Structures are given as C-alpha cells and as structure tokens.
Amino acid sequence: MDRTERGFTANAEQVRAARSFTHGVMDNWGLESSDVVLVVGELAANAVRHAKSEFTLSLRRLDDSVTVEVTDTSPEQALLATPAPSGTSGRGLIIVDRLALVWGSRPAGCGKTVWAEIRAH
User: Fold this and answer.
1) Which H/E stretch holds residue 52?
2) Is the pTM of this model over 0.90?
3) Could you give the CA distance from residue 70 to residue 92 in angstroms, rounded to a whole number?
4) Which of 29, 68, 109, 117 has the highest CB neighbour number within 10 Å of its CB?
5) How many Cα atoms occupy the beta-carbon half-sphere of 26 within 13 Å?
6) Where are the beta strands (DSSP E) in the chain?
C-alpha cells in the first residue's frame, strides 16, 4: 500500500494545485489518473467553496483502487444536492458519486473528511 498526503490553503488556485499533485502521484504509481484527478478537484473545490477552509489531501493506493480523502475544518457533513436544472453549481458530489465505487463523509476533529474510493487502472 502506498500513501501520500499534502496540505493546501483555502483558495481556488490550490484546487488546481491539488489536481496537479494528484496527477503526479498517479503517474508515479503507474496508474491512469483522470477519474481520481476529477474526484480530487471536486472535493477540494467543495472544501474551498463551502467550508472556506484549508484542506488536507490524502491519497492511498490499494490493490485495484485509490482512496482519496479531503479533510477540511467545517463540521458540516457532505450531502448530495439536487441542483436546479439551469443551475451552474451543486453537481460536485453527483460527479463523485458516479465515479466512486463508494464514498462518504465522517467527522474529523473540528471538521470532516470526505472520502471516495475510485477504481485504479
């Protein structure tokens, strides 16, 4: 099992940095990265946009999957939303739900961790 972790500050440019970091890690592990990078981007964006929080990204490689964990400082648990058809936001966790084998949210200290397990190729 391989594992890596990195902290990011609470701004939109750090979402891009988290995606880039993930892409590099996946390359080092010899795995296809597109689904994992997309999930990381959605969870990191939620930490910045909704929690208005710095966040920690953890990636763990298992036999045939990668577990992504994004921990922020907001105690509000992540829930699937039903966005308005014409809305331009609110679909992040829907994307995570479609790409992940399983995902969830759990309390972590004063905040929460949103995690997702994605099949690795």
Assistant:
1) none
2) yes
3) 14
4) 68
5) 24
6) 2-8, 55-61, 65-72, 102-108, 111-119
d(Cα 100, Cα 28) in Å, to the nearest integer?
A: 21
Structural domain boundaries in the chain = 2-119
Measured CA to CA, the distance from residue 8 to residue 82 in angstroms comes to 28
Q: What is the pLDDT along the chain (121 residues), one digit of tens a residue?
A: 799 999 999 999 999 999 999 999 999 999 988 999 999 999 999 999 989 999 999 999 998 899 999 999 999 888 767 666 665 565 688 889 999 999 999 999 999 999 999 998 8
Count of alpha carbons within 13 Å of 54, Cβ hemisphere only? 6
β partners of residue 57: 6, 70
CATH number of 2-119: 3.30.565.10
